[in-house]
Amino acid sequence: MTKTVEFYFDLGSPTTYLAHTQLAKICADTQSELIYIPMLLGGVFKATGNASPAVIPAKGRYMFQDLDRFAKRYGVQLRFNPHFPINTLILMRAATGIQLHQPQRFAEFVDCLFRALWVEGRNLNDPQTIAAVLTENGFDPEEVLALSNDESVKAKLKENTEAAIKRGVFGAPSMFIGDQLFFGQDRLDFVEEALRQD
Predict the structure, then answer these.
(1) At 60, is the pLDDT very low, low, confident or very high (cuts 50, 70, 90)?
(2) Cβ(24)–Cβ(34) under 8 Å?
(3) Can you give the residue ranges of the DSBA-like thioredoxin domain (predicted)?
């Protein structure tokens, strides 16, 4: 039976971006299925009493140095976004809408937004910048905005977030293999190990 990785993600997390750059290859190498599940990290933080490490200055400084180390190890670009923190409500609704209504373009959609945030350092708090990024990547901003305002899409993102909290998620990235939770992009070796076990 094919193993699956359920990847609970929010675009506004740099650690989630790093996990995103690696998980497809890990799943391909282990003949596993990768399932992206959009959630709202702000909702998870509120429900669990957690917060971004960046709100603690010493921890934030360390985290950004550590992320840079991992980016070099993975051979990927990472630039800390000068507009952080990003309010991802519209972005995550949009990702949920694309996943539901244009699944064939979902990977491309998530890629372009992760790249805009964590490679190009674009200000995705700004609706005009979001529209520009979408246009540059072949998406219709008005169509994407309509999806993000769709009541069924809003409900699905809320449902995903509530399900994540019920499963014990307290931050992003969070990955499940069966009932096992793996938190953080620095736990990908354990994810790969679990996928290789019989």
Answers:
(1) confident
(2) yes
(3) 4-195
Query: What is the 8-class DSSP label of residue 84?
Result: P
Q: What is the pLDDT of residues 24-34, one digit of tens each?
A: 999 999 999 99
Q: Which amino acid, 190?
A: F
Q: And the tokens for 107?
A: 């990977």
- Number of CB atoms found within 10 A of residue 146's CB: 14
Distance, CA of 29 to CA of 134 (rounded, Å): 31
Residue 151, pLDDT above cutoff 80: yes
pLDDT of 57? 87
CA distance 119 to 96: 22
Quote the domain boundaries for residue 166.
4-196
Does residue 53 have a cis peptide bond before it, meaning omega lies within 30 degrees of 0?
no
In this predicted structure, the answer to whether residue 68 has a pLDDT above a threshold of 80 is: yes
